[in-house]
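Hi R.,

Here's the input for the heme C complex you asked about:
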Amino acid sequence: MKGTDLICAAAFLAAVFLSGGPAVAGDPEAGRQKALKCQTCHGLDGVSKIPDAPHIGGQNEYYLIKSLKAYKTGQRKDEMMNFIVSELSDEDIADLAAYFASLEPKNQ
Ligand code: HEC
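And here is the predicted structure with heme C in place:
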């Protein structure tokens, strides 16, 4: 079972919870385009290309949104990520999270 309905429900709840307003559902296709910015470190397949960066393919969508927002507000600090997310809108974050969450996780 893919659990697509569950993922949609989780994304909806995450968007409502995080924005406090109407849900903006992430678009994985748009996210794939935006992920070109992330590929040097996290890979377009979500499998990390540098030892420093975590694998994010198949990661939970809610967690991805939460992490990206935490880097944006400075609650979570990392020189590279703080810089990268400073250019992302809430819609970009939702799209990127939808894209990376849709990938197969790396098993090992
Ligand atoms: C220059 C390399 C680099 C680029 C480009 C980059 N990242 Fe990262 N990313 C990192 C590093 C390093 C970390 C780990 C930082 C830390 O320790 O908090 C990280 C952490 C993350 C995390 C947290 C993962 C976790 O398990 O907590 C997410 C989500 C993430 N990046 C998403 C993205 C997205 C989306 C993009 C593109 C818009 C992107 N990153 C571009 C290097 C990069």
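One thing worth noting: Residues 37-38, 40-42, 52-54, 56, 64, 67-68, 76, 78, 80-81, 84, 96 surround heme C (CB under 6 Å).

Cheers,
M.
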